[in-house]
Structure formats: C-alpha cells, structure tokens
C-alpha cells in the first residue's frame, strides 16, 4: 500500500509513475557516507546548513526547509548565533530515513508514502511543525490523507500502521494514530470472525501476530468491548502464542531447542514477560482452549520459570478439562524439549489432584459415594494416568515416592482392574534394577493384586522383578479361586475377606521360605 508523493496533484496515475521514475533518475539525492548534499533547485547555490540526525548528516538549504517547517524557522530565528550553520534533529521520530523523506518534501522531490512509513512521517511532520496551518498542502495534511484513504481502509493496513507506531510512542498516541488503528482493526477483526471474507477463515489471526504484545493486548481489549465471543478471542490468542513463542510452543518431538545461556538472560526475560502477558489475556471460560495448547503453554511457563500465578492459572485450566487429556499431553509437561530427561512432575500432580478434588465434590453434591462409584470422566483420566506412568517409568531419575505420589492420586474405585498400573510398575522395576526388596515392595505398594486380570496374575507369578510378596499374592489368589470355583472378579465384601486372608497366609508363607511353600 503506497502512493507516490508529487507536487503536481493533477497528474494522472500512469503519467505520475513515469514522471516519478524520470525524476528519480535525473534528481537522485546523492548520499556520500554520512554527508548528504542536497542542491536540486540550482547546482550553483551552495548549501548553508548542516542537519544532524543521529550519526547521519545532511547538507541542505535553509530557505528550502523554512518554507515548509515552522520548527526549523523558529530555530533559526531564535538562535543566538548570527548565522546558524548546524542544526541537531536527532530526536525526530523515525530517525534519518524519515527526515530524508521530510527533506525531499521540502525540496518538492517525489517519494513513496506507504503503510510502513506513514505514521513516522505524520509524527515527523508534527515534530517539524510541517502543518497546513503553516503552509498549505504540507506534509501533515498529506500523511493524514493517506491514513484515511489507504492506511485505515483495511485490517491489514491498519495493523501495519499500528505496528510501526510501536517505535513512535508517545507521539503516535498523542496524534490519535494508535487509537484509530485499534478501533478499526478490532472492528474489522470481529467482523471477519463472524463473516469471513476469505480463506482460511481465521486468516485475520495471522495478521494480528505481527504486533508487539502491548499492541495485541489493545486489539483484544477492543474486540472484547465489541462483544467478541470467547472462542474468537481464544483463536487469536492461540495463533499469537504459537507465532511469538514459536521455538517453545512445541510438543516433546525430541528435536530440542538451543538452551538459553542463563535463567536471567535477556531473551528468557523477554519470553517470560511475553508468556505472562498472553496468559493474562485469556478469557475467563476454562474450556475455550484445546488441552494440547494449554499443556504446551504450561510447559513453556515451567521452562521459563514464569510466576507462580501464571503457572497456577494454566494448571487450573488443564485440570478443568482433564478428561480430554492424552498421554502425550501429560508427557509434554514432564519431559524436556529434547526428550532426554524428566522435566517437571509437580505440575502433573497438582493437575490430577485438582481434577480428583473436583470429581469428589461433584459426587458429594450428588449424594454419591466417591470411594465406590466414579464418573466416566474419572475412569478415563485414571486409565490415562496409568498409561502415563508407564511412559515415564523408564527415566532413571524418577523416584519411587514421585511415582507412587501420582499413582495414589487416582481413587481405587476408578481402576476396575489394575493391569495398566501393573504394567507401569513392571516397567519401573525393569528400568531400576538396583532396587532392593524393600524398595521394590514400596514401588508395588500402590498395586492391588486382587484387581489384576487372570492374564496379569499369570505374568506376575512368573515375574522375577517383583518382590516375593506380590508373587505370592498372585499365586495364592489363583489357588483360592480354583478351590472355591469363584469367578475371577470378586465383589467388594468378598474382596476384603480374601485380601485379609491373603495377607495372613502370605506372611506365614514368607516365613517358610517364600513361594516354594505354595507347592506343598
């Protein structure tokens, strides 16, 4: 989006472009290092003022600048020097590049106004007092015309202008450029969310991702004020997070990322501030974000050592929809980016605990007994947690207390059978071969042998990794069933009686040299 500035407003578009190209060839503004001489009207008139903008210097003519800039006129008039030959304009918005265009305007040289530079040109015009009040058709008026006719005519244009304003504060706010961009962009974003004008329908969320987080916040606030739905806002936030935290918002693919030099490196601090700002923008509704996205965001928060409040908010959101979680989602929270070691288990523990407490409260409210009957959601979560334990069991740094700490969170009634838990324990014992008998018994303490299927008990009876007590339970329980002719799965009263009998008998058997006594 651009137009070619020209002093001749009557020129047609095609002729204007041709004329502009000719003028650029014939009236090129020479730039020799840091000295930029400008003598276009007459090669015989020497320059009489040096304008400094940062490290750049421009050799110009006072009379050309004064004709358009009231600020420069006043500097010359109010100077204590009888003949001012040096002017410092290092504070001009946009720096040397924008001043060069303002100078071209003063000299009547054509140049392009685009959505990328119009805000800076407008601010520079204000700084230099190049207003229509001082001179008709001045730079301020020309940039305002472009803003209204081109820059603020589309969502994409408004966002590019808003992006450019991030380096022009507070003047861009004082000139109302920021507000106009935000108002138009938020209105058009809401309209696109409801009535997409092109494919893919969420193209507008990609457009928002170019913004700094502070500008993005203002757009989200503007959309909220216009009644945007939580799902609409969440769509924009998801895209923004995935773009702005691109290297961190990934699953445990094993590809890894380059670790930052230190926890307090500038890059990590910026990313942490960005993440916390994104979380603060989230709508109050807990279920509007996919659980995989929340888990990736939480893992990023853990990695960046975000504030406890930020991590706690994400944990609550994951816990609220935990019935939709997959093993991979939980692994995202638990394993480093390169998959080499365990990352964090406390978040998983708090998430599961929060879900179990919620289920318990619902059961109490409905007058049920949480210890005996569990919801379908709880049963699903229990199965996922056991499968998750099987995945993390291979890591050598996983302690028995942490393994059991997560396993014990699942209510007994949520496991119809303990086969998945048995599998996880077996994997753990295989990955930790140096455990003594007491430690292996502790690792198996979460397992209920009465709730193993016949196939699992058969496997357990031949499993040399298991402590003697568990092997005895498996063998002896099958012998009791064969003698009684009972079904494989006892009811609760029978299970309690059988468990007590097993405990007593196993203790006697262990005193008589373990499993060999069973054969007598």
From TrEMBL:
Domain NPH3 as annotated: residue spans: 202-481
Compositional bias ranges of the Polar residues kind: 1-11
Disordered as annotated region, ranges: 1-27
Superkingdom: Eukaryota
Keyword tags: Phosphoprotein, Ubl conjugation pathway
UniProt-listed Pfam families: BTB, NPH3
SMART domains membership: BTB
Coiled coil: none
Pathway per the UniProt entry: Protein modification; protein ubiquitination
A single GO BP: protein ubiquitination
PROSITE patterns: BTB, NPH3
InterPro entries tied to this protein: BTB/POZ_dom (IPR000210), NPH3/RPT2-like (IPR043454), NPH3_dom (IPR027356), SKP1/BTB/POZ_sf (IPR011333)
Domain BTB: 47-115
Annotated PANTHER family: OS12G0117600 PROTEIN
Similarity-based family: Belongs to the NPH3 family.
Protein known as: Phototropic-responsive NPH3 family protein
Gene source species: Actinidia rufa
């Amino acid at each position: 989006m651009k137009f070619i500035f020209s002093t001749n407003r009557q020129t047609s578009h095609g002729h204007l472009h041709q004329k502009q190209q000719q003028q650029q060839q014939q009236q090129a503004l020479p730039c020799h290092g840091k000295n930029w001489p400008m003598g276009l009207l007459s090669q015989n008139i020497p320059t009489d003022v040096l304008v400094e903008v940062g490290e750049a210097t421009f050799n110009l003519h006072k009379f050309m600048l004064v004709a358009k800039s009231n600020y420069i006129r006043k500097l010359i008039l109010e100077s204590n020097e009888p003949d001012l030959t040096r002017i410092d304009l290092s504070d001009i918005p946009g720096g040397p590049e924008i001043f060069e265009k303002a100078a071209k305007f003063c000299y009547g040289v054509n140049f392009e106004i685009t959505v990328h530079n119009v805000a800076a040109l407008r601010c520079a015009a204000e700084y230099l007092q190049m207003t229509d009040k001082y001179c008709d058709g001045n730079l301020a008026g020309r940039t305002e015309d472009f803003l209204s006719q081109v820059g603020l005519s589309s969502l994409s244009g408004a966002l590019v202008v808003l992006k450019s304003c991030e380096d022009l504060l507070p003047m861009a706010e004082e000139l109302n450029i920021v507000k106009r961009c935000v108002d138009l962009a938020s209105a058009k974003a809401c309209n696109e969310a409801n009535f997409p004008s092109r494919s893919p329908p969420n193209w507008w969320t990609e457009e928002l991702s170019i913004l700094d987080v502070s500008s993005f916040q203002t757009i989200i606030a503007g959309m909220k004020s216009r009644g945007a739905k939580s799902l609409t806002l969440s769509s924009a936030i998801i895209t923004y997070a995935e773009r702005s935290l691109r290297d961190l918002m990934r699953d445990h693919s094993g590809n890894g990322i380059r670790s930052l030099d230190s926890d307090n490196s500038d890059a990590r601090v910026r990313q942490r501030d960005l993440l916390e700002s994104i979380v603060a923008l989230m709508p109050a509704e807990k279920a509007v974000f996919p659980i995989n996205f929340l888990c990736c965001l939480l893992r990023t928060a853990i990695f960046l050592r975000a504030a406890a409040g930020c991590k706690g908010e994400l944990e609550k959101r994951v816990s609220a929809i935990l019935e939709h979680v997959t093993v991979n989602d939980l692994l995202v929270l638990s394993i480093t980016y390169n998959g080499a070691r365990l990352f964090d288990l406390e978040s998983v523990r708090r998430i599961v605990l929060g879900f179990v407490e919620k289920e318990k409260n619902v059961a109490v409210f409905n007058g049920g007994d949480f210890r005996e009957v569990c919801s379908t959601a709880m049963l699903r979560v229990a199965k996922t947690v056991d499968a998750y334990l099987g995945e993390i069991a291979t890591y050598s740094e996983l302690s028995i207390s942490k393994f059991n700490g997560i396993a014990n969170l699942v209510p007994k009634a949520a496991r119809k059978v303990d086969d998945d838990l048995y599998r996880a324990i077996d994997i753990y014992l295989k990955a930790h071969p140096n455990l003594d008998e007491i430690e292996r018994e502790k690792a198996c303490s979460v397992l209920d042998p009465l709730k193993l299927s016949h196939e699992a008990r058969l496997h357990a009876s031949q499993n040399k990794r298991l402590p003697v007590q568990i092997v005895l339970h498996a063998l002896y329980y099958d012998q009791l069933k064969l003698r009684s002719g009972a079904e494989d799965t006892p009811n609760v009263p029978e299970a309690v009686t059988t468990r007590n009998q097993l405990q007593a008998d196993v203790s006697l058997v262990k005193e008589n040299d373990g499993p060999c006594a069973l054969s007598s």
